Q: What sequence folds into this?
């Protein structure tokens, strides 16, 4: 009876040891493919390279947090989530930063997202993005934050009509439209209501539209 129990213990240990070897050390359950979703402008090969996971590396031992950290070094990536899909696929889900405005820098166009992160530098500013005009541009500047918040909150139809966003303070944001008309926007709050009111106001003749207080608007 004792011999039988000893045999069962040895057999169990052998099975567990083999299973552990297969999962944690063997290439049998290694990374054979990388599945990437969410990338629109970033090539998949660039993401795979930055992930830094070798082919056939045991999937169970891949440091997912470290891979995510490396992926976030790509400036265009806002968030990254890495997971395992057995038996041998590493899954990567990314969300790209979306530029909402342009800041002129030394004759170039710096594309920035709603958080003020520069996603890329271009020789010519895309005509679809408004240009920010700021006195002291920077991540800690309240006027910069307000201007970016406004830029990121504009509906697509209105955003295409905005040529320039000027911010002198956190509550001193104004828009210059492609036809030369000016919109006094004020603070960045109540963006949805301001946008809705402005769409209606723009059907009226005028040169200056004040929606800083969307409950009481003026057209000059």
A:
């Amino acid at each position: 009876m004792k011999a039988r129990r000893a045999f069962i213990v040895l057999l169990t240990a052998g099975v567990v040891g083999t299973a552990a070897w297969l999962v944690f050390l063997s290439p049998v359950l290694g990374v054979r493919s990388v599945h990437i979703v969410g990338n629109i402008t970033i090539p998949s090969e660039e993401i795979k390279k930055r992930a830094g996971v070798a082919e056939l590396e045991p999937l169970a031992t891949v440091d997912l947090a470290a891979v995510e950290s490396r992926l976030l070094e790509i400036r265009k990536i806002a968030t990254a989530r890495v997971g395992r899909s057995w038996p041998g696929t590493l899954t990567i889900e990314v969300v790209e930063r979306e530029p909402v405005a342009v800041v002129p820098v030394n004759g170039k166009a710096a594309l920035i997202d709603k958080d003020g992160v520069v996603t890329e530098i271009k020789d010519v500013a895309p005509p679809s993005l408004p240009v920010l005009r700021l006195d002291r541009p920077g991540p800690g500047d309240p006027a910069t934050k307000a201007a970016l918040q406004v830029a990121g909150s504009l509906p697509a139809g209105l955003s295409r009509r905005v040529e320039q966003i000027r911010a002198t303070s956190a509550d001193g944001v104004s828009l210059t439209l492609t036809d030369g008309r000016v919109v006094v926007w004020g603070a960045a709050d109540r963006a949805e209501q301001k946008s809705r009111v402005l769409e209606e106001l723009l059907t009226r003749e005028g040169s200056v539209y004040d929606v800083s207080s969307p409950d009481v608007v003026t057209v000059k």
User: Anything to note?
Assistant: The chain has six helices and twelve strands.
